[in-house]
Amino acid sequence: MSDTQTKGQLASAISTEVMIEINQMNKWYGAFHVLKDINLTVHKGERIVICGPSGSGKSTLIRCINALEEHQEGEIIVDGILLGKNLKNLDHIRTEVGMVFQNFNLFPHLTILENLTMGPIWVRKKNKADAIETAMTYLERVKIPEQADKYPGQLSGGQQQRVAIARSLCMNPKIMLFDEPTSALDPEMIKEVLDVMVDLADTGMTMIVVTHEMGFAKTIADEVIFMDEGDIVERNNPDAFFGNPEHERTQKFLSQIL
Amino acid sequence: MSKEAKPKAEIRVRPKEEFNFFQDQRVRSALYQLLTAGIVGWLAWYLISNTAHNLEVRGMNTGFGFWNVSAGFDADFKLVDYTPGIGTYGDILWIGALNTLLISFLAIVLSTILGFFVGVLRLSSNWLVAKVALAFVEVFRNVPLLIQIVFWYIGVFSLLPVVKKSLDLSLGAERVVLNNRGLYMSTPIPGDLFWMTLATLLAAVIGALIFRHRAHKVQDKSGKQIKTLLPSIAAIILLPLIVFLATGMPLEWDVPVLTGFNYVGGTSLPPAFLALLVSLSIYHAAHIAESVRAGILSVKKGQSEAALSIGLKPGRVMSMVVIPQAMPAIVPPLISNWMNTVKNSSLAVAIGYSDIVSLFMQTSLNQAGYAVEMVGMTMAFYMFISLTISFFLNIYNKRVQLVER
Amino acid sequence: MAIIKAKKTPDRSAPASETSVLGWLQKNLFSSAFNTALTLFTLYIIYLTISGVYVWGLADATFVAENRRECYDNSLTGACWAGVIDWLDNIFYGRYPREEIWRINFGGLLLALWMAPLWISRVKGKVLVGATVVVFYPFLAGYLFAGGDKGFFMQFMISGAIVAFAINMANTITGLTKNLGLNAFLIQSLGQTKATDKTQRNILLLLAAFAFGAAYLWQMSWSFEGVTWTKWGGLFLTLVISGIGIASALPGGIILALGRRSKLPIVRVLSTGFIEVFRSVPLITVLFMATTMFPLFMPEGFVLNKLVQVIIAVILFNACYMAETVRAGLQAIPKGQFEGAHTIGLGYWGTMGLIIMPQALKHMIPNIVGSFIGLLKDTTLVSIIGLFDILGMLRSISKDVPWLGLHKEPLVFGAVLFFLLCFSMSKYSRHLEVKLSAGRKH
Predict the structure, then answer these.
(1) B-C Cβ pairs (cutoff 8 Å, strict)
(2) Whole-angstrom Cα distance, residue B136 to residue B142?
(3) Could you tell me if C9 lies within 8 Å of chain A, comparing CB atoms?
(4) Boundaries of CATH 1.10.3720.10 in chain C?
(5) What distance in Å separates residue C11's CA from the closest CA in chain A?
(6) CA distance C266 to C280
């Protein structure tokens, strides 16, 4: 287990501004009801960790937030914009919401620097020099500036995931989503990625993290959500959640992973 | 006090390998190779001596002297000047090779364009369109090419009207005419000032490239994106057109004219050529469509998701992330498909188009009988093309290798 | 702020857009204005094509007629299938004497029965089944189809084939009924399960020898009328050429592939050269080479008939393509397999034969089926050099007096026939690919 626990709980800086609002959201894959009556409100600066068994719909939920998946019922409002069929709105959402994937999904045919500057140049219409400056700043933030000219295939898994985080940050998003960011990493590389995420939380970024790393949850989360079979079953602050899980499904899950 | 004497270090003798002749790896490998070389060599000698003997007995000709022997026959379709009775077998080889290259090149261009189009259709989100494209691919891949070629040839022949009732493809202007003797097209004859139009075209293309280069520089400096595609296309089309009109349209046409029983003038393409071109293009387009589809699908879904997640629009996701990664998967089967197109053009022999196999191997063989030389040279021709294409393919593959640890 | 949902929310049925036909239609076909237009346009094209084909091929077509004139009298715009139907025997069997056609059908049935155990999971010893098919069946079938005199060697192989087939069938029956291989069953019924291995083996050999003797005596009384190869034609000839082509190309391809991977330079160079030569030239040039140059290669007086020339050419050509397939299959075997074999002391041939090849061949089966489909289509080229395979037969219809000029209908029939054959085989091969990659055992 990672020892981010030693850092102690970070002070949270939650404002009252609502970043994400999900009301009675339901999603089906074909005939399969995968998300049921989801209600969720996320404020600016809040850090939320979602956990649950596989198939519970947690990845699907965050993928609905940045419109990688469509929902059939209910509403999702991100940064004041209702997610629907309006393509321009969807494009805007995607520039304001960053996502880090389990499999990194770096572009293998481009260098690290090119991976990072692609968004700023082509979407935010920055000039090359500014884009490179931003990219190097974030590369230093994730502590691997010397890899700028290498290709993703030449980096370790931990390094690639840190680059992926930097890539999303280069777009200056208001919200960062993490879909099991450390599940594909060798154990010795998990810590370096979690450290970066803790640093990020420190800066006041609004984060939703799907993960099994409970130590991490205890360190930075303002709220932990447990999902099972499409429902949000239980949610609480980390101390109460881990110390005194109320629902029996939560108890069963926690007993299996802790 | 006496020092304790150290025991003398033992001298270690390196064990020697016993040399057993038949177990020795080097001996064995040499023996196997000698054996193989011996068998192959004996076989070759046996075949060659038989051949030499048989050629003598039958009084057949050998040697490359036939180059300069005049061939007594004519080719249906030729790109170069040739007079039967004076032209030599060497000329015939040249004509056949050119004809093969001509139809292969045209078929490759058409099939690649059509293949990419159908391949993209296969991936369409519209279910009906995707299924129709699938039907196209499955039908034209599963029916033997020879049946398709013969079918188009018969179809061309039986459906096209006779000379007197030719189809006018140029909508009344009688510039392009189609009948069961072939496709007759007007040949352009450039006038004195035509070079100005061509020069303008060249200037427009170069100008567009420079414009694009400058636009990239502007984007690097300031981030501003300038649309270059439409202005470039407009310039390339309009500027030469304006010059052409201004210089008084200096272009004459050699128009095919109905004289007696036939059209005279212009360029004509025989029905066999048309049938072969159409069937080859469609057949290979079906195969190319599959390569394109497989190549695009080989790019993991996560790539386009990640690209969307940093805000790139779907068009850019395709052009900057998916296609560059799909091309290394598409190009090798594409190029081997092109090679197959060249090889399949040899089926011209079934419908009488004068490609190298039909002209050189079949006809010449019957006339002159230089069996070994003709067969050998025809096969050498195809081997040369194949080696050239492989060479360029290897260069491409080396260039697009993803850099890995 | 703790428990949100005490009870699990029951599944609800999905909204219409996800499950109903209407919803599916909307999503896939009519999701936008552009898509709708595209769908309608495509539907129109489909309608034109299908109605055109239906009218020509079925509604207006003539199925029964004596000659083309009658077809025209019946319907001017429809297809004249009567010609194809008249020639159906030729299309399938060539000019094989009609009374002897049962021999071809019987040969086909024999092959189907012989290979059936490969699909039945409870039968043991599948590798042997496959081997006997490749080794013995060609001789039995050859005699069945060609008839005539049989030399001693032929009689020997035919007897072997009979015995092999009988053993195969008996093995299948014991496998299905008692879940035992035939050898185990025989030993059991003779009460010799306790006997030593050597005794058991001798008993089985003795039984086999008896069976062989009986078969030999039996086949000596057989006599089939000779049918020269010139009468072979149609789909029958196509299958003969493709079947022999693929069966012989496989061992040849394996040898060439091994040669290409060899560390011995001469072997490698010769194999690579041979493979590259035949892979860079069109099949038609190889066929021409065979018909013009093979007679020159043979010593004086030794004549190869055209069918044998073509078959040899097809085998050479296909062995080279098969070599590439085998090479890819070998490359897919992880290096660890070679290393593991090395550590238990297996030499080159042992490693190849016992460890590598069995694994590689299993994965190559879909590719081999694909090669067979390709060969089936390529066989149509022999019609150019004067062999009357199925395409040759189809094109002959238009030269037959009652059906002069009937071009389209035979070709369409051939196209449809090939499409059905090749499409179903490639579907099966894709199914095999999925099944094999799932790692299930037969």
Answers:
(1) 153
(2) 10
(3) yes
(4) 90-96+234-399+407-442
(5) 6
(6) 21
For residue C359, give the H/E element and its range: helix C357-378
Closest residue in chain C to residue B54, using alpha carbons only: C296
By the 10 Å C-beta count (0-12 exposed, 13-18 middle, 19+ buried), C126 is classed as: middle
Cβ B305–A125 below 8 Å, yes or no?
no
Radius of gyration of chain B (CA): 32
Compute how many other C-beta atoms are within 10 angstroms of the C-beta atom of residue B324: 16
Mean pLDDT for the stretch of residues A83-97: 86
For position A6, what pLDDT does the model report? 39
Indicate the angle between helix axes A157-169 and A112-122, nearest 10 degrees: 20
Distance CA C397, CA B163 (A): 28
- Say if residues C171 and C120 touch (Cβ distance below 8 Å): no
Residue C49: CB atoms within 10 A of its CB come to 12
DSSP string across A123-134: TS---HHHHHHH
CB proximity A247 to B under 8 Å:
no
pLDDT at residue A5, as a whole number: 42
- Chain A residues inside the 8 Å CB shell of C15: 28, 72-73
* Residue C355 host element (H or E): none
> How close A84 gets to chain C, by Cα (Å)?
14
Name the pLDDT band for C73 (thresholds 50, 70, 90): confident
Tens-digit pLDDT profile for residues C130-146: 778 888 888 888 888 88
DSSP string covering C195-232: S-HHHHHHHHHHHHHHHHHHHHHHHHT-------GGGB
| Local confidence band at A1 (pLDDT 50, 70, 90 cut-offs) | very low
List of chain A residues whose C-beta atoms are within 8 Å of the C-beta of residue C12: 26, 33, 36
Q: Please, which residues have CB within 8 angstroms of residue B337's CB and are 6 or more apart in sequence? A: B111, B284, B287, B288, B291
Give the three-state DSSP class for B24: coil
Task: Name the residue facing B151 among C42, C381, C415 (closest C-beta).
Answer: C415
Kindly report the pTM of this predicted structure: 0.85
Residues of A in contact with C17 (CB under 8 A): 72
How far CA C43 is from CA of B128, B131, B137, in Å, comes to 8, 11, 18
Chain C residues in contact with A28 (beta carbon < 8 A): 14-15, 18-19
Q: Which residues does chain A have within 8 Å of residue C21's beta carbon, measured at their own beta carbons?
A: none
Q: Please state the CATH superfamily assignment of the domain spanning residues C90-96+234-399+407-442 in this structure.
A: MetI-like (1.10.3720.10)
- Measure CB to CB from residue C280 to each of B40, B151, B383 and give the nearest one: B383
**CB-CB under 8 Å, A94 with B311:** yes
Q: What counts of helices (H) and strands (E) characterise chain A?
A: 9, 10
Q: Do B311 and A95 touch (CB under 8 A)?
A: yes
B357 touches chain C (CB under 8 A): yes
H or E stretch including A245? none
Chain C residue with minimal CA distance to A28? C14
The ipTM, to two decimals, is 0.86
For chain A, the residue count is 258
Which residue, chain included where needed, has tokens 């590259």? C276
Going from the first residue of chain B to its last (405 residues), give the mean pLDDT of each consecutive group of 10, the final group possibly shorter: 58 71 78 87 87 77 67 69 68 87 95 94 89 94 95 80 79 78 84 85 91 90 85 88 84 82 82 92 96 92 93 89 90 91 94 87 72 86 91 86 71
List, in order, residues 6 or more apart from B185 with CB less than 8 Å away: B175, B176, B256, B266, B267, B268, B269
Round to whole Å and give the CA distance between A68 and A82.
Answer: 15
Which chain B residue has its CA at the smallest distance from C46's CA? B132
Which of B182, C438, B307 has the alpha carbon at shortest distance from A123? B307
Q: Do A153 and B219 touch (CB under 8 A)?
A: no
A183 interface with B at CB cutoff 8 Å: no
Do B126 and C282 count as a contact with CB atoms less than 8 A apart? no
